[in-house]
Amino acid sequence: MVAAAAEEQTLNILIVEDDDDTAEVVSIVLSDAGFHTQAVDRGKVALNEIANQTPDLVLLDLGLPDMHGLQVLETLRAYSSLPLIVLSGRGTDNDRIYALNAGADDYLTKPFNPEELVARVRALLRRVTITPTAETLLQVRGLRFDLARRQTFLQDKRLHLTPTEYNILLALARQAGKVLTYDELIHLVWGEEIEDPSVLRVNISRLRQKIEENPRHPRYIVTVPNEGYIMPKGGPAT
Ligand code: CA
Known about the structure:
The protein folds into two domains: 127 residues, Rossmann fold (3-Layer(aba) Sandwich), CATH 3.40.50; 94 residues, Orthogonal Bundle (Arc Repressor Mutant, subunit A), CATH 1.10.10. The strands form three sheets. Strands 2-1-3-4-5 form a five-stranded parallel beta sheet, with helices on both faces. A four-stranded antiparallel beta sheet has the order 6-7-8-9, with helices on one face. It is α/β, with parallel strands linked by helices and 238 residues long. Helix 3 links the parallel strand 3 and strand 4. Helix content is 39%, strand content 20%. The structure holds calcium ion. The site of calcium ion has 5 residues, from loops.
């Protein structure tokens, strides 16, 4: 196991998993990687812990004894944009799409390689880390980004975006007026990590639900067929 980077020492990861063996293995590999971990085995307990302790990242099993993991995810996403990776025993495409639709940032199917879990956790945390920048504000029409706080406003109303949604929207806004190809966007948002292209599509669809007046006729995230997406610079500020 690679030695932990200093900045990872204090990061707390909440493991929501009712299978003791899995919870223990996950806890061990993450501790070895330098993270603090806490494991709970019920959805309700997890929601309490998240509200009270605010972990830095959540690993969520879908099959929990008291409630479905997706319910936990939906409840959480109503008020929180915590980075979250779903761990699931079921590996069908539908389950993955459901979880991503409900706001998961990533998805791992059991049994997974512990090294891969650590790599995914690190990759997600890298994507949500605030990188110091000279810029503090960015505005495209009615959309405004507070880059220091990673907050987004639409017509001065705060948007509740997941870390992945924020990164996608910011990438498009930074290049407003220019088409970003699917590959460029995946590279900008996920870096070198190999991601399932459906993750991008699902996140774009969620973003449109949140920011577009009419998601079927988007004005902020416009599809350029066979090319990618563009955020037009001009047009009505609505
Ligand atoms: Ca389970």
